Amino acid sequence: MPEHGDLVFPQAEFDTRVANLRKLMAARGLDAVIMSMPHDLFYLSGYQTPGYYWFQVIVVPLDKEPFMVTRLLESSNIPARTWIKHSRPYADFTDPTRVLADALIEWGLDKGRIGLDMNAYFFRKHEQEGLISKLPNAKFANCTGIVEELRVVKSDLEIEKMELAAKTTEAGMMAGIKAAGPGVSENDIAAEIYHAMLKAGSEWPAMAPFVATGWRGAVGHMTWERRVTNAQDYVFLEVAGCYNRYHAPMMRTVTIGKTPQEIKDGEKVCLEAMQATMEAIKPGVPACDIDKIARDIIKKGAPHVEQAARTAYSIGIGFPPDWGEGHILSMVDAHDRPLEKNMTFHLIPWVQVPGFGGVGITESIVVTESGCRSLFDFPKEVFQA
Question: Is the pTM of this model over 0.70?
Fold first, then answer.
């Protein structure tokens, strides 16, 4: 078992998370849950590895010790980085669902009601079917979202991690802005972002920074591919530093040479939408109401532009392929869940300007008792190189 300092959080934080999960399990009549998303494994135990493309799960029984089933190579992460006492690793040439089934039998769960995250990226259909076929006396239920329900509201300790991530984001973003200029390649800008972000303390982020210049800034999720900027050009940047797997994303826009009026108009409406949404965000307000505020302002203030996406998405723990938690909660028309204190979001009322691309001036925010606050202390503007 690791020394106290090797855990990302104090043991009491993990104990609270598992206890809260067990309350949800009891309410659903589950004797155990099997979780396979790397975010959920990290949230419940502290376990992390980039090797999650191999089968790995944590099993949390209602009233017995949790255990993990991972690839043998990855199992060394369990005593090194988690509080979990029991591991049942599998060799590369074995069927991991056989090992998992045997462990469930060992724990006396083979006749119980077991929750599976059936929407998980990393628990494939044939693996789920293989496990179910090996435990004919067990009953399986879809428990997708059971851990995400806990993750969407952060503890104070989690927000401290995100504040540390935000400092690394700021360092990377400022380096990218300073690197932008005529005759500079996207690779040069990306290199400066990474150098500054990592020097400031970031770990490997869940997604690469987005660095798109010129026409490439109008293409969704475009990032560096060696393009060299022109004397009158446009640079779109989106950066998220990472601290103990927690992320804090930010978008900013840079123009090289004179800023076109269309970009200035986009900047104005983005800032108006940002101010209005931050003033409106507070506990009890439905997420969809914030989305409507942003869309109405953008539609009225700049009818020739288009809001490029949702107004905000939940953020926190990130593993590839995403630094966001938008599948848990996003500020869009369809999500009417009321906001709660300590929810955290990437607030992104950004726009696509025809002929130019995206204008992004965004914030990572935390909902407070009476409103919200940004995790950043960074200028909100379109920069000029």
Answer: yes
The token pair at 152 is 């969407």
Given a cut of 50, the residues of the chain with pLDDT beneath it are: 1-5
**What is d(CA 339, CA 301) in angstroms, rounded to the nearest whole number?**
26
User: Please, are residues 341 and 320 in contact by the beta-carbon 8 Å criterion?
Assistant: no
Q: DSSP assignment, residue 71? A: B
Using DSSP's 3-state secondary structure scheme, residue 269 falls into: helix
- CA–CA distance from 52 to each of 41, 47, 327 (Å)? 10, 11, 20
| Secondary structure of 171-232 as H, E, C letters | HHHHHHHHHCCCCCEHHHHHHHHHHHHHHCCCCCCCCCCEEEEHHHHHCCCCCCCCCECCCC
Measured CA to CA, the distance from residue 7 to residue 154 in angstroms comes to 18
Provide the pairing of β-strand 357-359 with 363-367.
Answer: unpaired
Q: Return the pLDDT at 218.
A: 82
At 130 the pLDDT is 97
DSSP 31-59: SEEEE--HHHHHHHH----TTTTS--EEE
CA distance 165 to 167: 5
How far is the CA of 296 from the CAs of 26, 247, 261, 292, 303, in angstroms?
Answer: 43, 29, 21, 6, 10
Domains of the chain, first to last: 4-151 (3.40.350.10), 156-384 (3.90.230.10)
Tens digit of each residue's pLDDT (9 = 90 or more) over 127-154: 999 999 999 999 999 999 999 999 999 9
Helix, strand or coil, per DSSP, at residue 153: strand
Closest CA to 233 of 221, 247, 252, 215: 215
pLDDT of 176-191, one tens digit each? 999 999 999 999 999 9
CA 159 vs CA 152, 285, 368: distances in Å: 12, 21, 11
